[in-house]
Here is the input.
Amino acid sequence: MTAALLLAETEPATRAHLERHLSSDGFDVLGAAAGGEALELAERSRPDLVLLANPLPDATALEVCRRLREGEPGRSWDRQVPVIVLGGDGDDAVDRARALDRGADDVLTKPVAYDELLARIRAVLRRSAVIEPDVLEAGPIRVDRGTRRVTVVDRRVELAAKEYALLVKLASEPGRVFTKEQLLRDVWGFRSVGRTRTVDSHASRLRRKLAARCPGPFVVNEWGVGYRLLDEPGEVVSASRP
Here is the structure.
């Protein structure tokens, strides 16, 4: 699966340079020129890692990192997203310690050798990787990843490959809304998103197949945003076996 990186860098030439090389090394790169823009992208696109250059025109990297970690009312970015701070060439050991104290996972000082940055990114991603459980359960839905067997109230559901992959993604966090951009990236491997009904058509078929086994609020469409598997985290849909 392609990892998505959010790169907040004010200098256009530096940002373009890093975007080009990171893309060539297999990452899906989202560029931002300011802290506010970076927070908006973090909320909308849910990147796998955030690179924060310091300073940014509207905030320090440390301030953006602190806001990412603490969260804000009405905002829904991933507060655990790994963050690497790219400090200024005048930063010292105290500045690096402060960045780590604000929640950064790693700190590099400019100028940064690209090979070292790449190695640090891969190391942080390895440390933060989540081991997926063999069995996912959400309400009456059970997904056995080892056998690819899907059941609803113990009744087998036959799914096409992408319907199954979509269900696995949604079932990983049943109450969370996944944006269409995230689903296209993680399920279909799209690196750029245009006008497509791919997610909607697959979500509709998946919803019908699950509901055929047990009526329930499955594959809920959050209009203009994306999809969630159940209405609420941990929700259990009542149903009786035939």
In short: The chain has two domains: 4-128, 135-228. Residues 4-128 form a domain with the Rossmann fold fold (CATH 3.40.50.2300). Residues 221 and 227 are 5 Å apart (CA to CA). The chain has a mean pLDDT of 87.
